[in-house]
Amino acid sequence: MTLLRATDVYRFYHVGEDETRALRGVSLEVRAGELAALLGSSGSGKSTLLACLAGLDDPDGGQVEVASERLSRRPEAQRARLRAEHLGVMLQSGNLFPHLNVLENVLLTGRILGKPDEARAHELLAQLGLSGRLAAYPGQLSGGETARVSLAAALAHGPQILLADEPTAEVDAATEAQVTQVIGAFVQQPGRCAVIATHSPRLAAHASRVLRLKDGRWQDA
Ligand SMILES: Nc1ncnc2c1ncn2[C@@H]1O[C@H](COP(=O)(O)OP(=O)(O)O)[C@@H](O)[C@H]1O
Ligand SMILES: [Mg+2]
To answer: Is the beta carbon of 45 within 6 A of some atom in ligand 1?
Structure first.
């Protein structure tokens, strides 16, 4: 079953006179059970592709479908609903609301969907070694704790698709191992998949597919 499909996605940025062709015709199909590692040097387009797959950015050409529904070229409110229903998204920063504590952040998407799963939230936070930090606020967390809470927040509402942008950048080896384990367990549940931009050999070793971007295209294309 294909859960995520990108068809011929283009994204160009314009700054003054300059044009950056961040994505130049990228297509991708991710099926249930797959963990796709997205590799590529800095500037190759990984974050731009993940933002388009998440519907946080709209491609200039081509389209993205999640669970057979078109995500691209829709009003933001509809994209937000599809994102909450189907996707768990972990960006490199800005995943947590500073005025909500750890548990409230992790429960937030579930609450918006009207089905907060407190048991699941506590289970994920325990797996990530965060049971003692439920009442902490994001400003009180270390970098590694922030990454783990962000992962729990991306997964607690039970999405089908996890999109994560360098989830183990700037964390210690113990956190990298916990994050890798939780992502690995997530994709082993039926009907789940993940696309993870990463430089981590440990995380990439869990991948069922390795995708390489270079200058906004698949490297072997
Ligand atoms: N908001 C933006 N405005 C202008 N250029 C951007 C913007 N975001 C990304 N880019 C450019 O697009 C290219 C791809 O960036 P990005 O997707 O962040 O790559 P990666 O995540 O692989 O490092 C880079 O050349 C980057 O400078
Ligand atoms: Mg990036």
So the answer is: yes
